[in-house]
Amino acid sequence: MNRMPVPLSGLTGGTDRLAALADQCVMCGLCLPHCPTYRLERVEAESPRGRIALARALADGRLDPTPAALAHLDHCLGCLSCQKVCPSDVQYEEILVQTRAAFVPRATGLATWLHDPQRLTILARLGAATGAAHWAPWIARLLPRGSRWRRLATTVPGVPPIPRAAGPTRVAKASRVALFRGCVASVYDRDTLAAARRLLEASGHAVVELAGTRCCGALPRHAGDLARASAESATTREALCETGVQVVLSCASGCHGDLRDQVAAGTGLRVLDVHAFLADDPGFAALRFRPRAARAALHLPCTQVNVVGATAPIRDLLARVPQLEVLALPEQPRCCGAAGSYFIEHPVFADRLRKEKLEQVALLAPELLLTTNIGCRIHLGNGLQSRADSVPVLHPLALLAQQLENPSP
Predict the structure, then answer these.
(1) Distance between CA atoms of 49 and 28, rounded to whole angstroms?
(2) CATH number where 394 lies
(3) According to the model, what pLDDT value does residue 409 have?
(4) Which of 194, 266, 287, 303 is deepest in the core (most CB within 10 A)?
(5) How distant, in Å, are the alpha carbons of 166, 184, 248, 258, 265 from that of 208?
(6) CA–CA separation, 401 vs 317, rounded Å?
């Protein structure tokens, strides 16, 4: 589906534009079975077409933006499963973002940190430096029940160690690619980033990484803070263009859409899925991998399926590991409830969705759980930990790097 990028300069076209977008929906209801919140609640206001009707009423002035009305917008995970199956090509993502930008009040309290990539990364780095995964749950007991700060304290993940390579890798430097580190992912997905670098260098690519914290703008954009999203995208765009690279790769599926549609807009940058890039790369095809006799459950995040669209390459890459049995989790229900900062802000919905997903995992009895999005990794990992389940949650690239036989230097 070809989609126009969401404008980031403000509510483009005013409420007339929002009303026109909402009018594209014919209310057929084909999206309902694919919506996570509607499936849980069976309430029309918690469905895509219900939220579109709400956006239309807000734009027309027939509905006041009361907290009760806006709560239904806030409950949307933005998974875009509805948009993927829509026969009318309704631009649901733009409707959601524009409605939040026009009517949802600016964030206060903890939400100002959760929607601000720079502040959130500071929290992540502080937590990593102080070992917050060990002491934060104790602090949580002192905080009011139901508070977002308490929820945050109970969801702080441990920082994965960066594995040491067993030997040298071949770097032919025949091409240069940029590896996008992201904001929170630069802390909690650092083993994945190290694995991606190793696989890319072993395949013969020189890898460029941007210094400092760079954000694609997804976190503030999904919250309706279009000014901040635009600023983050512009800063990252400028930094990437200065590197002189043409290809940008991201390990986190949640960053892909904004990198492609916002950061790279109007430039010569090509944002490619890292799995598809490696699967088509002759240098990667020449690599060898050690056997791993294990059962791995593969979770395909909403963003991987509905935004990135590249799922077959992930399976193709994992098939390179001898004796590895990859078991895909059932397609529905797909969403695990992570959705950026959603699992902190809306724990009731998020935990119910995660429970469904972890029950699917338990039926497969895997030794590994693989996923391509950092939010899903944290949320699912926390759920497994609460169940005293020791199944590790890894990015597919981390597993591949673990099994890589070192090429000749």
Answers:
(1) 8
(2) 3.40.50
(3) 47
(4) 303
(5) 22, 19, 9, 19, 20
(6) 11
394 plus 300 within the same structural domain: yes
- Output the pTM of the full model: 0.91
Positive or negative torsion for Cα 122, 104, 346, 309: negative
Q: Of 372, 359, 295, which Cα lies nearest the Cα of 330?
A: 359
> What would the pLDDT profile of 290-339 be if each residue is shown by its tens digit?
999 999 999 999 999 999 998 999 999 999 999 999 999 998 888 999 99
Q: Do residues 371 and 295 share a domain?
A: yes
Nearest-angstrom CA–CA distance, 99 and 13: 12
**Domain count of the fold of the chain:** 4
Which of the four pLDDT bands, split at 50, 70 and 90, describes residue 402? very high
For residue 4, pLDDT over 50 is answered with no
Q: Which two tokens stand for residue 60?
A: 């027309």
Tell me which residue range forms the domain holding 78.
14-103
End residue of a domain, out of 282, 308, 323: 282
Considering the domain boundaries, does residue 2 fall inside one?
A: no
Cα–Cα dist 61/397, whole Å: 49
Q: For the domain that residue 247 is a member of, what is the CATH number?
A: 3.40.50.1860
Q: How far is CA 363 from the centre of its chain?
A: 25
Residue 349 lies in a domain: yes
Q: What percent of the chain has pLDDT over 90?
A: 71
| 76 C-beta neighbours (distance < 10 Å), count | 25
Separation in Å, CA 71 to CA 42, 61, 100: 16, 18, 11
167: in domain: no
Structural domain contains residue 339: yes
Domain boundary among 262, 282, 302: 282
* Burial of 64 from C-beta contacts in 10 A (0-12 / 13-18 / 19+): exposed
pLDDT digits (tens, 9 = 90+) for 195-250: 999 999 999 999 999 887 789 999 999 999 999 999 999 999 999 999 999 999 99
Contact 301, 254 (CB under 8 A): yes
189 and 272 in a single domain? The answer is yes
Digit-coded pLDDT (tens) for 125-154: 888 888 877 887 888 787 888 888 788 888
CATH of the domain at 91: 1.10.1060.10
Cα atoms in the Cβ-side hemisphere of radius 13 Å centred on 65 = 14
Rounded distance between C-alpha atoms, residue 382 and residue 350, angstroms: 12
Q: In what order do the strands lie in the sheet with 175-180?
A: 205-208, 175-180, 247-250, 270-273
